[in-house]
Specification:
11 strands; 2 domains; globular; alpha+beta; eleven-stranded antiparallel sheet; 34% helix
Length: 240
């Protein structure tokens, strides 16, 4: 699997580092060919179903095939995966010529799509998606994409910002904000009857700031865990 990924990934250019804002518990980036990416996405049953639902409105497969370059994914919630952000570098935006045909055909499914500025607002019974293309930068999101398309700097994820050079030397990179995931469980642990030992483990885990997983050339995977206090010793904290 890693060998196959390495053949179809390339080093990240860093086109979408500004999309790694501090409100995303999970942010990932990769340099990838859209044809290969689509084939892998369709192997997952839930993703394949989601693509099918979107396909009623827009030719999502044509859009993904047009990707050739950096792709960034952000999740604004650690528990609600229905919200997402995706940015991708396109080799061409020829599919935009078919948008009027998409709009005409989707009416049969009770779906509507209107253009507002650089964005298209796609509305279905169970999903609202905002998407757009600007200068061959593609943005898909369940929230406003203006920031994404214009790559407007916002409050950056500190870990991603510090890893900028490392990211550009990676084929794929993922940063998980452990604080945003663990802290709510620590706060609720005593209320829901977790044992004192369990609470103690959670409190130790709450000292972890982030976990970074990156795929390097030659199929090498690196995993890094950062503590909230960089003066603490990782092993001592883990073994407490």
């Amino acid at each position: 699997m890693l060998r196959e990924a390495e053949k179809n990934f390339h080093k990240i250019n860093g086109d979408y580092l500004d999309t790694a804002v501090d409100k995303f518990p999970v942010w990932a980036c990769m340099g990838v060919n859209g044809e290969w990416l689509l084939s892998k996405l369709k192997q997952d049953t839930s993703i394949k179903q989601m693509l099918f639902m979107i396909e009623r409105g827009i030719d999502i497969e044509a859009i993904i095939r047009a990707i050739d370059g950096d792709v960034a994914v952000g999740l604004p919630s650690a528990t609600n995966y229905s919200d997402f952000m995706v940015c991708g570098k396109l080799k061409n935006d020829d599919f935009l010529a078919d948008v009027p045909d998409w709009q005409a055909g989707m009416k049969d499914y009770g779906i509507s799509m209107n253009k507002k500025g650089d964005n298209y607002h796609l509305q279905t019974d169970d999903m609202n998606i905002i998407w757009g293309v600007k200068d061959k930068n593609l943005a898909f999101s369940t929230f406003d994409t203006n920031v994404l398309l214009n790559l407007t700097p916002t409050k950056a994820n500190e870990v991603v910002k510090a890893d900028k050079d490392e990211i550009k030397n990676s084929l794929a990179y993922m940063c998980v904000d452990l604080q945003s995931i663990i802290t709510p469980f620590v706060q609720l642990s005593s209320a829901i009857g977790i044992s004192p030992e369990g609470i103690a483990i959670m409190k130790v885990c709450s000292k972890f700031k982030a976990m970074v997983v990156s795929l390097k050339p030659e199929s090498r995977i690196e995993i890094k865990v950062e503590l909230d206090d960089d003066k603490e010793n990782f092993l001592k904290t883990l073994l407490k």
